[in-house]
Write a structure and sequence with these properties.
single chain; 405 residues; mainly alpha; 17 helices; globular; disordered N terminus
Length: 405
């Protein structure tokens, strides 16, 4: 695939290879230069996280809550989203524990971590700590999950307001979200600087051996996405419809190719709707309800990637997490992925949010950023495929005849 010279992908790869070459050529004397460059990117990322959570999640909840025909159809739809997202997360969890790509890694990170706060909590502690005693204090202290909880509640009760306040608040948060996305895109465009800095330091201090585990991590994510797309989702479709799921897949290539190339479920939405209505015989009533919501909140591929990445980064720091600790991280990843925006690189931003939520340093983001853009293409494709399978499943549960010739 030809990469435009002016694209972000081009400059990220330029930062990657430029940092590797600089680290190799200059050696450890480049570290005082590389550290500030990576720190600039990480500081900008920290700056954007909380405002982005507040605006994106509140706007998403308001948008979904304004749909007056939720009822049973909405319950079925969200049940599907939760079940498939959990299936994707558990697939990634099993793979990253079996293959352990971060164990024994020679990647040396600057910050030291004595413990992972989220992994030390019980489920009771997790549930209690999600509820903020003071939302503003939680915001100031960077406590992600309490902020998410408050935003969901606030967004819901906005939809219960009378006019004109409901529309005014909805427009305010939607407009604020658009502003934050523009700001976040600016932050993401500083990623090549961060990539250059972190990779220059890695090569200067450890050589090229560090990238073996990164390639291993890349392969683990791809294997997980492949299993979810070709085994898990078809199995769900078959169990509900009792028909060949690949009859549905046959009409999806235009949407999947668009998702792969644009990394956006929203951009792909018209093609997804056309595929499920024309090829899989899903009614417009179902597709126009399920797919737009799915493009906003259903992110199977992103959820799988986030789970693998968090455990991979924990492995780099030398933590061997038990089942209970990993379940805490799984729940955290599921909650934090609800507000993932359907725009390019949103998984990277949400990864930052999840690392902050579980108590791992953000410098882990700079490590996986070197392969994130390529993984973004694959996980967005899986996101769109899951949305389309959901439309077929919900339509069948609603009594429609789907996948007919």
């Amino acid at each position: 695939m030809k990469i435009p010279v002016r694209s972000l992908t081009f400059w990220i790869f330029a930062g990657l290879f430029g940092g590797m070459l600089a680290g190799r050529a200059v050696g450890e004397p480049i570290v005082p230069i590389a550290d500030p460059l990576s720190e600039i990117f990480l500081r900008l990322l920290r700056m954007a996280i909380m405002p982005l959570i507040i605006t994106s999640l509140t706007a998403a909840v308001i948008n979904v809550g304004e749909r007056r025909n939720l009822g049973i159809l909405g319950a079925k739809t969200f049940a599907y989203y939760i079940i498939t997202s959990l299936a994707a997360i558990l697939t990634g969890q099993v793979l990253v524990n079996i293959l352990r790509p971060g164990v024994g890694s020679s990647i040396q990170l600057q910050e030291t971590v004595e413990a992972i706060p989220a992994a030390q909590q019980s489920f009771t502690d997790l549930l209690l700590n999600i509820i903020p005693e003071n939302p503003f204090q939680a915001l100031a202290e960077g406590q992600v999950l309490p902020v998410i909880f408050f935003c969901v509640l606030f967004g819901y009760f906005v939809t219960r307001m009378d006019e004109p306040h409901r529309t005014q608040l909805g427009d305010f948060f939607q407009g604020s979200f658009r502003v934050m996305m523009k700001l976040t895109r600016m932050v993401i465009w500083t990623a090549p600087i961060g990539v250059f800095g972190i990779n220059a330091k890695i090569v200067a201090t450890t050589g090229f051996d560090a990238f073996r585990s990164l390639g291993f991590y890349f392969a683990v994510v791809l294997i997980g996405l492949f299993i979810h797309a070709t085994v898990t989702l078809p199995l769900f479709v078959y169990i509900v419809t009792r028909k060949n799921p690949f009859r549905h897949y046959k009409g999806m290539p235009p949407a999947l190719i668009t998702a792969f190339s644009t990394c956006s479920t929203i951009v792909t939405l018209p093609l997804t709707m056309e595929a499920v209505t024309d090829n899989s015989k899903v009614s417009e009533k179902i597709s126009s309800f399920v797919l737009p919501i799915g493009a906003t909140v259903n992110m199977d591929g992103t959820a799988l990637y986030e789970c693998v990445a968090v455990i991979f980064i924990a492995q780099i720091y030398g933590f061997s997490l038990g089942l209970h600790q990993q379940l805490i991280i799984v729940v955290t990843a599921l909650l934090a992925s609800i507000g993932a925006a359907s725009v390019p690189m949103s998984g990277l931003v949400m990864m930052s949010i999840i690392l902050a939520a579980v108590g791992l340093p953000l410098e882990g983001v700079a490590v996986i950023l070197t392969v994130d853009r390529v993984l973004d293409m694959f996980r967005t494709t899986v996101n769109v495929l899951s949305d389309s399978c959901g439309a077929v499943i919900i339509a069948k549960l609603d009594g429609e005849e789907v996948l007919t010739d």
